[in-house]
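Lab meeting, action items carried over

1. Structure of the four-component assembly. Owner: GW. Status: complete.
Input record:
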Amino acid sequence: MDRIFLAPSSDEVFDFVSREHRQRMIIVAGMCTVEYRGRAFSFLPLGERLVMVKQDGCVIVHRSRGREPVNWMPPGTRLDYAVDDQLFLVHCEKRSSREKMVMEFVEVNLLASLLLNDSGQQSLVGLESDMVDQIVEQPHVLEDGLRIVRREKQTISGSIDLFAIDRDGVPVVVEVKRNPPGAQAVSQLEAYILDFREKNRRAVVRGILCAPRVPRMVRTLLTDKGFEWREFTPIFEFEDGGQRRLDEFI
Amino acid sequence: MDRIFLAPSSDEVFDFVSREHRQRMIIVAGMCTVEYRGRAFSFLPLGERLVMVKQDGCVIVHRSRGREPVNWMPPGTRLDYAVDDQLFLVHCEKRSSREKMVMEFVEVNLLASLLLNDSGQQSLVGLESDMVDQIVEQPHVLEDGLRIVRREKQTISGSIDLFAIDRDGVPVVVEVKRNPPGAQAVSQLEAYILDFREKNRRAVVRGILCAPRVPRMVRTLLTDKGFEWREFTPIFEFEDGGQRRLDEFI
DNA sequence: CGTGCCAGGTGCCCT
DNA sequence: AGGGCACTTGGCACG
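Predicted assembly:
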């Protein structure tokens, strides 16, 4: 099922990866250098890393710490393997995005291939879209009498999350943030509003920033610019019928 | 050096990880479910995945495709291993960020530990800061007679990349983007400008958006709002003395 | 600690 | 293919 080498020679590595490439996920751990040229330029001097080569052509280089790979290539990358002067070489190139990565292995400690049979779909709730869903279903969480007119309304300055009409018939632009917003969210809202007024001859329009928590600084900024804010923590439903707030920890 | 098990029993897995935990990076490949509760809620049904547990306490779950892990826990996560009813269980919890991940292994195909000796520093050029460096050194790439006054100037609406004075003594706000900017970058610039005028009694001030490429739509938006744009592709120098433009592919 | 912002961001969905 | 935007964004620098 799974195939493994411990401390293989460069030739053994070459034979192995040539046989397994794009058939299985390949794992190579060893002492190497990594050079990248494309969207930026980087060089990683000699050291021991773990490399994954997936069947979709993406390459991921991990160091001993951190969630993020130190180097990588996106899915669709073309790989060429070679042995030169006892070094095991991996040339990665993606022409469409014009980028390239080269790894030179001085030594390979672990070499393995895996066939991961994995077709299940991950369920995921608690995203901003779930939050918007809830506001659409129950607009009163923002304020009584609010009527949602449109979702994801396109404007020249970007798209706004919700466009609504309040109980007095005044249009309302609503920007929803799942995470505590910064000044940037206010700028975004302001741009929408200015744009709306521009296009509608200085019509009266309200702007609301909605998030589970709105930092004090942002509140001040909103108030200064004549906008409003709402704090709203959504409640999520699960397949088992349970409900849970996003800020509950279990 | 590196330690490996093929198709170990749950008890063997438990003994192995208990011994290696935080001593070496641990790799577990096998059939499992993954549940996450924290910043969101997710469930991944039974399937074969590759899991890395690093010494800094981060956990990374990879599927057969894609650069991104399907599940993960950040550095600093506390792990508990257990065997229950032939299942190998991994409980991951990070109290500071109130999140939790649970993996249940029905079967483990590959189990390994790695001691990655890796101390070298990665060099990386081509970032936005490198681009700003170049403008500071040679302001004429933006326009003749421009004098850079400040870098990373703080404003209430965020920080601006460069603050300068043009040949006529008019203040200039410069926003630098490494990647093609969107409408958001214009909003950001606009917020700075509005803020500046507010604080300086409607003083005359110019706004420039500088990027290697400025999309047509963004140009229009900038022009509408009375701002300017510059296209500027930086040239990077390497330790070997070579120079290269970021848009050159080799 | 939080706050702000870049990233070789990645991935998804839209036109 | 390109634009726009959320992300369990991650990571770092700074107050």
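2. GW to write a short summary for the group page. Key points so far: The first helix of chain A runs from residue 10 to 20. Chain A has a mean pLDDT of 92.
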